Amino acid sequence: MTDLDVSDLDRHMGVPIMPGELREPVAVNDIRRWVQAMHYPNPLHYDDGWAAASRFGRIVAPQSFTVATDTSHGSAPAQVGRIPDSHLVFGGDEWWFLDARVEPGDKLLCHRMPYDYKVRETSFAGPTCFQRGDTLYINERGERIALQRSTAIRYKVRTAVEDKKQYDDKSGEPEWSDEDLQRLDETKQKFIAQIQNLGHDKRLLGSVSAGEELAPNVIGPHSLASFATEWRAYPMTTWGAMRKGPTSVRGEELGYTKDFAGHEGDRNLERVDPERTDGAYYGPSRGHLNPQWARKIGMPRGYGYGASMGAWMLDFVAAWAGEWGFITHADLRYRGPALTGDASFLSGVVTGVREERRRVNVADIDVKMVDQDDKVQATGKVSVQLPLD
User: Fold this and answer.
1) In the chain, where are the structural domains located?
2) How confident is the model at residue 323 (pLDDT cuts 50, 70, 90)?
3) What is the enclosing helix (H) or strand (E) of 120?
4) Lowest-confidence region among 8-22, 34-48, 59-73, 161-175
């Protein structure tokens, strides 16, 4: 384990870092753009007429949108401290949803604190640091929206690229026949039908039992275009959108390799040359959308965003729960990348119902996401509050 130098991390644990804050309040079109990018066809979040007839009386954000109100999708407190010659990918998010939902007009401030880390051996990169940090989302009324505990996987680039070579056999994209694509569309239609059939009605807790399966969904096949659409749905990626954050240090101070250090979040440079601060083109995020750069950090081709994978799973459960449901907790683990050309198949099953605390009754859902070869991309345990009557 000595090949990965994590000696700088201890001094950061438990020490708050710069808050994150977007310059503008949440706009309705921010929400529409989000559900479009996350492939979430729930009209509650984009259609005026449907939303007007809902319990909210207007368009509101899905709970998955919370991560889009930060300036680093929750990763900033999970990547403090210098690990030389390293890179990172997202490893998971744990969410506790608290007092309120995100609504148009809300102005959020994100308070951050590094939490902990551990180092263990992995097949992808040998000695690997799993580092966690907390982001608390609070609106302008002082209401707590959510607490997110994000996990960053930090590793030596050379080990992943030159030694482990885990994805060497994944350089080519799978081919999808017209029949294959038709089957994907049929699955998507079942998911949409679940939303439309429930409509504005309540999914009562008494109607749910262990073993019930959620309508399946599929996202993809993924492409550089779909990943770029996701990236641009995060308001933080818009030039000039950040008031505070994402972090107070530069990439090279975190130990990123020279090729990937970049200037993401450098607001001084942004005033002069904003393209060089844009993660779609430069810096640590560039591997997502550029296969050449993806290979430099151990990925075989363009790959999706961990925060988006989390949103897919949250939306998957929220669609089943309906507008009267409220996700209270989610523990989401990202096990493998969603690569260009792959599809992501979501399934879920109710594992039980229980009283979480007085007058708060929840259904527990196990969620799994796999690719077309049945390789696990992500797993999750989600608790959702449902009405009793």
Assistant:
1) 10-385
2) very high
3) strand 109-122
4) 161-175
CA separation for the pair 47, 161 (Å, rounded):
46
Encoded tokens for 327: 């996700």
Match 């000696």 to its residue by tokens: 7
Give the per-residue SS3 of 28-53. Answer: HHHHHHHHHHCCCCCHHHCCHHHHHC
Give Cα separations from 332 to 118, 288, 360 (angstroms): 18, 20, 22
Cα angle 153, 155, 156 (rounded to 5 degrees) comes to 170
Query: Which CATH number describes the domain made up of 10-385?
Result: 3.10.129.10
**What pLDDT, in 10s, does the model give residues 129-146?**
999 999 999 999 999 999
Model confidence, pTM: 0.94
Laid out side by side, the sheet with 376-385 consists of 217-219, 344-357, 360-370, 376-385, 326-334, 86-97, 144-156, 126-138, 109-122, 17-22, 242-244
In the structure encoding, which two tokens stand for residue 243, read together? 């008031």
